[in-house]
Fold:
Amino acid sequence: MGFWNAITNFITQTIPWFDGILASIIIILIKAFALIIPLMLMVAYFTYAERKVIGYMQLRLGPNRVGPKGWLQPIADAVKLMFKEIIFPTKADVYLYLLAPVLAIAPAIAVWAVIPLDADLYIANLDVSLLYILAVGSIGVYGIILAGWASNSKYPLLGALRSASLLVSYEIVIGFALVTVVMIAGSVNLNAIVEAQKGSILHWYWIPLFPMMIIFFISALVETNRAPFDVVEGESEIVGGTHVEYSGMTFAVFFLAEYANMILMAILAVIMFFGGWHSPFEGVPYIGEFFSWVPGLVWVLAKATFFMFAYLWVRATFPRFRYDQIMRLSWKVFLPFTIAWIFVVALMTQLKIGPWF
Amino acid sequence: MLENYLPIVVFIFLGLAFGAGPVLIGYLLGPSKPDPEKNSQFECGFPAFDDSRMYFNVRYYLVAILFILFDLEVAFVFPWAVVQSQLGWFGFIGMTIFLSLLVVGFIFEWKKGALEWE
Structure:
């Protein structure tokens, strides 16, 4: 806890009467803002990166007017959305209509409390952090269902129905895929899972659990409503799904939640399958020591950036799936396969032939 | 141990604040010029000719029911998964029986056509 302890010590030493539960809440708040503000900036520049990367992939330039090379574009967008009117549709249920974006973003931020970004860089170290992520993460679906229901309009309702059944279907798949990781690591604590992957790039779980890693990545695309599984928004079918009646900041909050979830899923993939904060050169003679000064945070972010880029790459490459095909993929392909893989992992552990011993 | 959960409480309230705050800012900064046309629900430019809370396909309901079954299954598998390497063959056979029962149910619903979307 080097960095955090330094902050805590600094505060307690400069202000001697600073003590008790209030003090710990204030310290947590400082840490939380130190995490959430960079996260929000990351979300803002991820939207910029998305437009730029997809632009270049389609031989366009992407945003390039606001600021040098368009760097100020996300700021301009945020300011613009702030000054836009928030429309309250006459038929909408106003309280639920306003509750929906809050319920969408609250879990997307709350899960960051347990994400370890380095060996000692986390805010809470729960014994059950993975279960906490799964439990809180699934609350996000309420935001979308409520948005669809409270708007009292046809397209949002259709989008909400699609989204609810998609999200719950793939939640099971993600659950089973992560069970195999837990089986090997023997813990539901994220820090322990990363520690269990210590050694070298060959000890990371992406090799023994390669099929699960692929399934997790595809399910993460569905869970975050990304192309090619974005039937929830489906511009060409249901114009914008649950967001149709939302405008201004209410829409921006949904947008923030979606992108925060994408970053979360990328970092979760890194923690579960790509050795978290461990350096890829670990265990390699000479090169491993040469890179040993690089902080773990850099490795986590570098690996997560790769996954985030992969999201954009996939979006620019594949056409949208049909709804029944996505449902079939989840129930008839991924679910039987993950259950079978649990047996395989269990059997390999019992026979002691796993590559992870 | 309990102090580990204090950040969780703080983060849940922060999450709610990060949702409510921007909406409030937008409400205060943005204009408010309501208009019956603007505030009517969107339907590609037509006036709505039907109640928007319409009938929907029963399959969505089926998926919800199946989700409850399988999500409970996942919840049961997690505690076993943590200790499965220490449980040995006893745990393996126990879990095999449990999962086989669910797989039988899964095959049944597949054959019944509950997973078809035509």
Remarks:
- Chain B has one domain: 2-111.
- Residues 2-111 of chain B form a domain with the Methane Monooxygenase Hydroxylase; Chain G, domain 1 fold (CATH 1.20.58.1610).
- Chain B touches chain A through 69 residues (CB under 8 Å).
- Helices of chain B lie at 6-29, 36-39, 58-112.
